[in-house]
Amino acid sequence: MISAHEDSDAVLARFNKLVQELLRGNITRNTFRPWEIELLLDIDFCNLKDANKKETLRRYQRSVQRQMEKGAAKPMKLSDYLSGLKAKREAMAARGLPTADSEYEESVEEALAD
């Protein structure tokens, strides 16, 4: 997915540029790395509602940035990020603990349910 000559800093820079283009709603380039296409397809597959899409993408971007700073070689998919949120919320609920941002996470779940 990511070629050997791309270091994690370059990958993170391209990822951030891609997310910023999505947030602006204006992708001006026509050349993408294979991993960028895979992420775009995954984001499209997640089918987020417009009301939550920008905030979800911002939080996803911050999560990927943290992961890559810790040594991840490639950005995780949005679907993996959302699955992780859901699993975290379910685990906390099973322990009877409130989630840190349950209102936001519920809005994400609503967006995915439709």
What percent of residues adopt helix (DSSP H or I)? 55-70%
Helix and strand composition category: mainly alpha
As a percent range, the share of strand residues is under 5%
User: From N to C, what is the helix and strand string?
Assistant: HHHHH
User: How far apart lie the N and C ends?
Assistant: 30 Å
Tally of contiguous helical segments: 5
Low-pLDDT stretches are none
- Overall mean pLDDT stands at 85
The radius of gyration is 15 Å
Give a count of the beta strands, DSSP E runs of length 2 or more: 0
| Sheet with most strands | none
Number of domains: 1
Specify the overall morphology: globular
TL;DR of this structure?
With 114 residues, the chain is mostly helical. Helix 4 crosses helix 5. The N and C termini lie far apart (30 Å).
Can you describe what's shown?
This protein has 114 residues and is mainly α. The protein contains five helices and no strands. Helix 1 runs antiparallel to helix 3 and helix 4 (78-94) crosses helix 5 (102-113).
